[in-house]
Amino acid sequence: TNYTNFKRNKQIYGIIKTIDMRKAKTTKVTLRFRMLNTGKETLYLDYYPGIPNPKTGETMRREYLGMYVVPLKKRNGELQTNKDGSHKYNAEDEETIRLAEIIRANRQNELSKAEIYTDAEAEMLKAKERSKGDFITYFRDLAKDKKESNYNNWMSALKHLLDYTKKSDNATTKRFCDINLLWCERFRDYLLNVRTHRSDKVVLSNNTAAAYFLKFKIALKSAYKYGYLPKNINEDLKGIKEKETRREFLSLDELKRLVETPCTNPVLKRAALFSALTGLRHSDIRKMKWGEIEEKDGKFTLKYTIQKTNKYDELPISEQAMQLCGERRNPDELVFDGLVYSAYANKALAQWLGAAGITRDVTFHCFRHTFATLQLASGTQITTIQKMLGHKNIGTTLVYAKTLEEAKREAAEKIKIL
């Protein structure tokens, strides 16, 4: 809502401590209306004399509230007016004006009393104002900072958070000050039983619910860190434990079949096979530039920053992997120019796999799993694989060892003579 947007913007101003005592006592705040070409009136606060803008330091006379009203009209198109000449509005707009007047009064009070607040009192007042902001909007802003698939996951989590808030509070907003541990725990239970947005018959998988709830916990932690939540609720909030799942991977024979099978998206094919030979994620392959690949004594090394962790790494590149890159071009050009993350690319991937006779549910990320699993099968040390995959925790890499053992067990059970 416009009111929520204003409250969010209001946090920028806080308690205006830079105003000297003379100005604090004499500055008058007036609620004013300005007619727009659309027929709406925008509401703003008029400061006289002006006050310093905390962001720029320049004198500020107006503060737009992001709130709008529409004056009522007569049949002939003229505006309806009261006896004092002011415009008439419907009940909803009258409520908006009432809220704006409360904001004006609060701002006047802040300006008039700014000089008598101690630092501690001023900080408490600012924290109180922040706590009245909207957590849903805050969560959405965090999501906007994410990229590609991670952004989509955050937005999916946001949809479920909105659905839950509508169900629990009959609202589309949730003030920080109204969030408590019980509300958060009930959201966790909600995720474990809710249906997916794609199908009313399918419940969210345990690991998907865990991923969405983790993002919720991250938002709570961030809100506490920046002073929107007075208590670190995340500290007492238990997450959803992920269930171990099988990491799907391709066999060496299947990889060879894919090499021989045409794909409608050639750059996707080269990138997927490149991932199987290097263990790189889609996000890192997509942004890889020729200038990041160095050659010394016939050996190639990729020197890059991992997008997921933002850490610098150096990765040896085999000759076969380099062949998939094609001819070297200018340093600032993308190696796999045209590689994108999209539904169209996923469809092309599925068609390519199907044409090669691979009917399992294989995603692009499975080529990274394939690299790890085949390296383990060939005898490469687990710590070496950990470093090549860029895993911080070796426990993450050990999952591949378990997957390989399961695959060996399945292979052993296939041969029966009795």
Describe the structure.
The model is unreliable at 5-25 (pLDDT under 50). The chain is elongated and about 95 Å long. The chain has helices spanning 2-10, 21-26, 91-113, 119-131, 135-144, 148-169, 181-191, 206-225, 233-236, 252-260, 266-278, 282-287, 319-325, 343-355, 366-377, 382-389, 394-414; strands at 28-35, 41-52, 59-69, 293-296, 299-306, 311-317. A hairpin with a 5-residue loop joins β1 and β2 (41-52). The strands form two sheets. The chain has a three-stranded antiparallel beta sheet with strand order 1-2-3. With 418 residues, the protein is mainly α. α6 (148-169) crosses α7 (181-191). The protein has 17 helices and six strands. Helices cover 50% and strands 12% of the residues. It starts with a helix and ends with a helix.
